[in-house]
Amino acid sequence: MNTSTVTRFTSGIRHSMLALAILGAGASHSLAQDDHSHMDAMKRDQSSNASAFLKIVRDSTERFKDVRVAMAEGYVLQFGCVSGSDSGAMGLHYVNGKLVEGGVLDPTRPQIVIYEPMPDGSLKLIGADYLVLAQTWHAKHTETPEMMGQLFHLFEAPNRFGLPAFYTLHVWAWKDNPQGTFVNWHPHVSCDSFAGQNR
User: Fold this and answer.
1) In this predicted model, what pLDDT tens digit does every residue of 86-120 receive, in sequence order?
2) Residues 130, 76: Cα–Cα separation, whole Å
3) CA nearest 54: which of 93, 96, 125, 108?
4) In Å, how far are 5, 7, 8, 14, 45 from 2, measured between CA atoms?
5) For residue 28, how many C-alpha atoms fall within 13 Å in the half-sphere facing its CB?
């Protein structure tokens, strides 16, 4: 093979490799765009699910803005006012024992409604909490419970509530939480005005 043939051969390989690189880059860009659009679609779906969930919780608990209505439907104050050392608080948990015992997770029937004690002595509805005992849940399921795309949080036993291990999902439906709608603690909830009385 003479020098000019080698040069043409090498040049041809370089051109082929360059073409492949350009095609590969285009394909990678196309795949990246597909991945990006897929991720965008997933985020939109999650956001849509979260908004729908929030609306269900608000519609299902609006009547409980008057704590007397919640109490008439079987919700009873448990655990006092739950506050964290540096994470804000959870507030006052009014628990429906029959719904807890039933072990059914239904977005329209939260096991717990949550209030914040106000300086004037009133209670302000701030959210709902879905709770299922781990043993009850795992008698019929292997996976972690979730509701409308939101995974529950596991509280191991022993815990500060004196309960067996349980799964919980807080929904801050009536007081915006800068940390997220479905986190356990709310940095802007306070127990300072709770005097320990059962209403």
Assistant:
1) 788 999 999 999 999 999 999 999 999 999 999 99
2) 15
3) 108
4) 5, 9, 10, 18, 63
5) 6
Residue type, 101: E
For residues 146 and 152, is the Cβ–Cβ distance under 8 A? yes
**Torsion over CA: 72, 167, 181, 116 (sign):** positive
Helix (H) or strand (E) holding 17: helix 3-61
DSSP 140-174: T-SSPPEETTEEPEEE-SS-TT-PSSEEEEEE--S
Output Rg (C-alpha) for the chain, integer angstroms.
Answer: 27
List strand residue ranges (DSSP E) for 51-147, in order.
75-83, 89-96, 112-117, 123-133, 146-147
Q: What is the pLDDT of residues 5-54, one digit of tens each?
A: 444 544 554 555 544 444 455 554 555 566 656 556 555 666 789 999 99
Distant-in-sequence, close-in-space partners of 26: CB < 8 Å, separation ≥ 6: none
Spell out the residues 6+ positions from residue 60 whose beta carbon is closer than 8 angstroms to its own. Answer: 107, 108, 109, 110, 128
